[in-house]
Each structure stands twice: as C-alpha cells, then as structure tokens.
Amino acid sequence: MKLKTLLLASLFVQFSTAQQHKDVKPQDLYATVDFLSSDALKGRETATESERIAAQFIQSKFIEAGIKPYFDTYFDAFESKGYKGVNVVGYIEGSDPKLKDEVLLLGAHYDHIGFDKKVANDSIANGANDNASGTATVLAIANRLTQLGTNKRSVIVALFSGEEKGLLGSKALAKKLKIQNVDLYTMLNFEMIGVPFTDRDYEVFLTGYELSDLGNKINTYTNSNLVGISDVAKKYNLFKRSDNFSFYKEFKVPCHTISSCDLTNFNFYHHVDDEIDQLDFVFMAATINKLIPGIVQICNTDSKEIQMYDTK
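Request: output the structure for the sequence above.
Response:
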C-alpha cells in the first residue's frame, strides 16, 4: 500500500495542474488498472465470478462518464464453446443527423487467463498489461469523448469477454452488429499499451498496418509519427490474434489493434509477473492524449477518409 501511495504521488508530480485539468490523467489510468489487476480479481478468467466483478466495475465507469448502454443494458451476454461470457457495451451518440448513423467502435478485452505457473508463491496471472491497460485506455478515451461532446459520428465502446479463449466475445458482438446492419466505419482495438518502446521512432504500432491507411491517417490527424509498423507483429500475424479481427471478418472495413508491446519490450506475456508495477502510466497518459485528437477527427470528417487498400 505504501508503494502504491508513493507511485501515485510521483504521477501527480510528473503532470502539471493544467494538464491534469484537460487531459487523461496517469493516476486515473493507474486506479483502473489497479482494480482490474488486483489479486482479488484472480486473473479475470472468462465466465468466472471475478470476471463478472470486472464487468460490473466497467459498467460503473460507463455510468460515471455518462455513457449510455448500447443495448437495453450494458451487459451483452453470449455463450460460445461452453463459456457464458458478457461483453460490456456502451454508446456515445453522434451529433450530426447524417453522420451519426456511421459508427466508430472502440474496443479492448478485459478478461485474462486466471491462474498460471507459480512463481515465488504467486500463481495469479493479474494481466496488468494484458489487458487491463487496454481496458483503462478505452475507458479513458470514451470518457474524454463524452466530456468533449463533439463527435459527429456515433461511438460504440465495447469491452470484450473471452478473448483469451479464442476471441469469443468480439466474435459474438461482431455477428450481432452485422445482423443489425450497423454501418461500421472503423474499429480501433487496444491491447497491451502500458509499456513503451525504447528503440523505435514511433510510440505505438498498428496490427495489419499495410492493409489500410488508418495508421497514416492517425499520424496526419495528430501531426505526429505516433503510429508505426512492427515487423514482429507482422511476423506473428498479430492482426488475426486480437479482437479487431472479429470485426474485420464480418465487415471488411479497417479494423486494427493499437499496441505498444510486440513482446520485444515486455517479458511477462501470460505470466504471473504481469503486474501493475511493470507499467509506465505517464507514458500511457501521454500516448492517449496524443491519440485523442486523431480519434476526434475520425469521428468528424465529412466523408469516410479511412479506407482499406486494394491488396489484390
């Protein structure tokens, strides 16, 4: 507890009062990850009571931010491969009479693997980076979009269950939205975004970068070199290994995962030492704050500027 107090104090010092007022705060990200990756949640394995507690926490964050449920309730249950999971799905309606029928989907999985091989008497796989960090990122971006209230297009905010069991929650939601004939413009998924690179000229990478112009557009919209290509991600085809792929399969529109970890800069993938003290919350907050203006632009362009490349 004393260590956490000292860390939070350090985070306060590193961000000015002005930044705290208008931007996503590292201490808020810390608080979200701290809850989700605590031992009390026992690794958030799919369809467990611990995962349901995490879902209730996410719901409380939606309510606190003023984000409405997309369906009748925030909880969208599914059953697949013997697992009964629940996605948590919110909605930020667009302000433009025409553009609001087009949808940007922000997503991340909130489940993890539960328990893993014991290390120093610890067998709880807390999943701080994977993927409490992505969940905290989506909640922070959605909260900021609600505060701004400028999005012309509508935004679906989805936190998925069952990713670790084979993208179960995102597959279920993607199929449901396809049946509803949702006009999905693009999908941004967030995965393992808590640890910075030290050897790149960009800050995050985009899985499947070469499949669409989303990465280029984000860099243009943010006037930065924020997003780049990871050769490691391409080698291991990470485009198909996270929840973005479920939506790409159904809609064939730009659906990508944003991450700062291609496993070259993080040694604790699916490991009990994936703990909160491994993460850099000042980096996370700074990256999110750079990204938000790009997301706002995605919501507000007059036409669908982001397109798939012709890969034939």
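DSSP finds ten helices and eleven strands in the chain.
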